[in-house]
Description:
CATH architecture of chain A: Orthogonal Bundle
Protein name (chain B): sn-glycerol-3-phosphate transport system permease protein UgpE
Mean pLDDT of chain B: 84
Mean pLDDT of chain A: 84
Oligomer: heterotrimer
InterPro entries (chain B): MetI-like (IPR000515), MetI-like_sf (IPR035906)
Distance between the termini of chain A: 17 Å
Subunit structure (chain B): The complex is composed of two ATP-binding proteins (UgpC), two transmembrane proteins (UgpA and UgpE) and a solute-binding protein (UgpB).
Membrane topology (chain B): Multi-pass membrane protein
CATH class of chain B: Mainly Alpha
Distance between the termini of chain B: 32 Å
Organism (chain B): Mesorhizobium amorphae CCNWGS0123
Amino acid sequence: MEKRVTFSRWSIGILFAVPQLILIFTFFYWPAGQAVYWSLTLQQPWGGGNIWVGLDNFRSILSNADYWKSITASLTFAAISTGLAMLIALVLATLTDRQLAGSRLYRVVLIWPYGIAAPALAMAFRFILAPEAGFMAVVNQVWPGFWDPGLDGTDAMASIIVAFSWKYVGYNFIFFLAALQAIPRSLIEAAAMDGSGVIRRFWDIQFPLITPTIFFLLVINITESFQDSFGIVDIMTSGGPANATNLMVYKIYSDGFKGLDYSGAAAQSIILMLLIIVLTIFQFRFIERRVHYR
Amino acid sequence: MVERTPILNFLTHVILFLGFVFCVAPFVIVVIAASHNLKDVNDVPMSLLPGSDFWINIKTAWTTADLGPKLFNSFIMAAGVAAGKVIISALTAFSIVYFRYPGRMLIFWLVFITLMLPLEVRIVPTYAVVANVLSPYQTILDLTGLSWLIEKISGVQVSLSLGLLNSYTGLILPLIATATGTFLYRQFFLTVPDELTEAARMDGAGAVRFFIDILLPLSRNNMAALGTIMFLWAWNQYLWPLLITTDQSHATAVTELKQLIPNVGGIPEWNIAMAGTLIVMLPPLVVVVVMQRWFVRGLIATEK
Amino acid sequence: MASITIRDVYKSYAKMQVVHGVNLDITSGEFVVILGPSGCGKSTLLRMIAGLEDISGGTIAIDGAIVNKLEPRERGCAMVFQNYALYPHMSVAQNIGYSLKVAGVPTAERTQRIQAVARILELEQLLDRKPMALSGGQRQRVAMGRAMIREPKVFLFDEPLSNLDAKLRVQMRSEIRKLHRRLSATSVFVTHDQVEAMTLADRLVVMNGGRVEQVGTPSEIYSRPASRFVATFVGAPAMNMLEGEVTLDGLSLLGGSRRLAVSRASLPVGSKVAVGIRPEAVRLVAPGTTGALNASVDLVEELGAGRVVYVDLDGAAFSVMTSEAVHPAPGSAVGLQFSEADLHFFSSETGSRLDVFKASVPVPAL
C-alpha cells in the first residue's frame, strides 16, 4: 500500500529516518556483522587480533555433545510449552467468547501474567515448585524424592515449562479472543440456523477461521521460547542440573560471558539467528493468508 | 443466542474458573508467602491464611536488594525506551510513508529486517559495541584508510572511544534499535486520509509542520498503545541489563531479584524473596491493569 | 481576485495520460464549473491549479504569473475538499484558523478574523466544537470558512457537495452562490452533477476523457452542445440520438426506416450523422398526425409535475418529456412531433456538432 499524497522535499524525508538508521546500524547491523566475523575467526586469548578459521567454530560447536543437548533441550522446551500455552489459551478463549456471565472478568484477569517479568514469575514459581517448602513439598511428603528440580533434569525442565506457559497463556488468549471476536456473529448464527450445535460450530466454523492466528502464535511462541526463557532459566535452574535446562540463549550467555569464548558464542548466535529467520519467513508466508471478512 | 445448553454452560463456568485460578493463584501465593515469617513460610503445606509479617518482609527485601535506586533505574530505563521508541518510530514511519526519495525501499527493508532478530541472539557483539559505541565508526575509518589519512594530514591519531557500560544510555539505546513501533505507525499513517495532507498543504503547512500539528496529534492512540507495550517490555528486560550493568549503581529491579534467591545453606528466606518479587512485579502489573485497553491494542497491533 | 490562464496543460502518470492539452481562460471574479463524468480529468485539472499535482506539461498562470513550480501555499488558492478534510483533533476555530497560524499571524488578529468568518457562515455558536460533533452541513460550512479566512485569490471546490443529502445539497448550493456574490472571488468548482453545474456556473467547462469538450454559459451548453458527448451528458433525461445517413433529399434515419426532409447541406451523400432531439422538445400527438413520427409506448414514468414517456421507434429507444396530462397505455401508438429548430446534428465519426443542416424547409415529412 502506498500514499498518493507525499511531500516533495527528499532531504527532510531522509533526515527523519536518520536517527533510526544510526541506531540500527550501531546496535543491530554492526553487531550482527560482528557476530558473523567472530564466528569465522578465533580470538587470541590475550589480544593479538583474530585468526581466520573458516567454519571451524561451527564444526567444533556442532560436534560438541553439550551443544546438541542444548538444542534438544530448547526444542523440547519450545514444543511442550508452546503446545501447553496455546492449548489452554484456545480453550479459555473459546469459552470466554461464548460470553456467558463473568466473561468480562476473565478477559481482564487472564492477561495479567503476560505483564510480569520472566525473572519475577520465575522466582514465584521457584518457590511454588520448591521441593522442600511451598507446594510440591506436600507431594514429596507423600512420596519422598518424587520431585526435585535441583537434582532431576526432567523435573527442572517441567518447572521452566510451567513458568513459561503460565506467562504465555495470557498472551495467546488475547490473540485467540480477538480472532474469535472478529468472526461475524451472523456466520455463527447462520450455522446455528443450519442446526449446528455449539461444539460442532467450533470445529466447522470457528476453528478453520482462526487457523491463521494459530500459525502466527505458533511462530511467536516458539521464537519467544528461545528468548524470553533466559530469565526463567537463570532464576530457576541456572541451566542445570547437568545442563538439562541449558537452553540455547542461556548457553550463548554462559559460553560468551562466563567462558569468554566469543567465537563459540558467536557461532551459536549465528545458528540461532538462522533458526529464527527461517521461522519468521515461515510466519510471513502464513500472515499473507490471513482471513479477511470483507 | 437463544440456545439451551445447561451442561455445556456449567462446564464452561467450571473450566473458566479453573483458568482463572491458574492465572491468579501464583499472585495470591506470592502475596501470602510475603506475609509469613520465616518459620511459617517453610511449613509444609504453607498456610494460605496471611501472616502478619508483610511490611517487615517488604522492608527487608527493599533494603537487602537495595530496591529503591533499582526501581528508579528500572523506571528510567523503561520510560526512556518507551519515549525513544514512540518518537523515533514515528519519525521513521513518517519518512517511509510520506516521502518518495530514492532508497526509500532500502530503508524500509533495513528497518524491517530488525524485526527478525531479537537482542538476545546477538547479545555478545552488541555488548562489545556498547563497551565502545564508537568502535564501528573507528573500524570503518581504519578500514577505509581515512584514519591514516587524517593522521598524515593533521598529525592527530584517530581513536574514537565512548563506553556506555553502566550508563542509562547504554541500557536504553540498544533496546530502541528494533522496528516494532515503526510498523505500528506505518499501518496507522496509511489509514490517514490523503485529503487531510492536502488540506494541510493548502493551509500552507510543510512536511514538518504537518507532522507536528496534524499527524502526531492524530496518532495519540497509537502512541499510548506503543508506549504501554514498550514500557512493560523494557521494564521486564533481564539479560541486557544484567550484562551491561556490571556496577551496582545502574542495576535494575528485575536483575536485582537474583540477590534474593535463598542461599542453599540454612532455612530459605522465601518470605523475603516473595516480598521482593511482589515489589518487582507490582509496577508492570499496575500498568497492565490501568492501561489495559492500550496494552491489548498495542499487543495486537505491534505483532502485525 | 485573479484570472487564471491554462495553456496546453497535460498530465500523465507512469503509463497513462489523463489530461490532454487543456486550454482555458478564467477571468477575474468568475464562477467556473468544470463538469464531467468520473475519471474525465476534472479533479486532476483542479488539483494542478491548486498545486497538489505536478503539471506534466504546459503552463498554469494566476494573474499572469506562471505558478507551475510554486508550492500550494504560494499560489494564493484555497480549496474545499469533497470529504471536508477537517482536522479531527482541532476545534472548529482551530480548523478555520490553522492557515493563519502556519503563516504566523498573531493570535489577536487570528481570533478576530475567525470571528468574522464564523459570523458570515453562522458558525459562531460552534467554534469550540470538534468536527465529530457537527452535522454534514455544518462541517461543510467549516470547510468553507477554512478556505475563506485566507482571503484567497482563487477558491477551488472539489465536489464539495457530493457527501450531503439531497435537501442540504440544494441549500448549500444557494449558500455558495450567495457567498460568491458577496466575495466575488474567482472560483473553480468541480462536479459530476449537472444540476449543480447548471445552477452555480457563470461559465461551464464540460470535460470528457481528459479533454475540454465545450466551454460556455449554461444556457449555451444546453441549447448548442458542441459535441455529441455534451449533448447527451447535459440534460435529463438525456437527449435522444438517432443514427442517420445523408441522402439526396435529406436524411435517412434508423437504417432507412424513416426519412427526414431537411435541407441538405454540403455533406456528401452517404455521410453518417447523428440527429439529436431533447425529450422536452418533443410533443406527443395522435398517431398518424401529419408530419409526426409514429411510435409505440413502452413505459411511462410519473414525475408529478410531468412525466417521461419511453417509446419504441423501430427498435430504437426514445424518450419524451411532457407536462401535459396524457397517460398513454404501454403498447399504444403515439405520434411524435417536433420542429426542426430543436434538432441537433453531430458527425457520427468525430461526434462534433454539424451546423450545416440549419435550414428553414418545413420538416419533418415522411
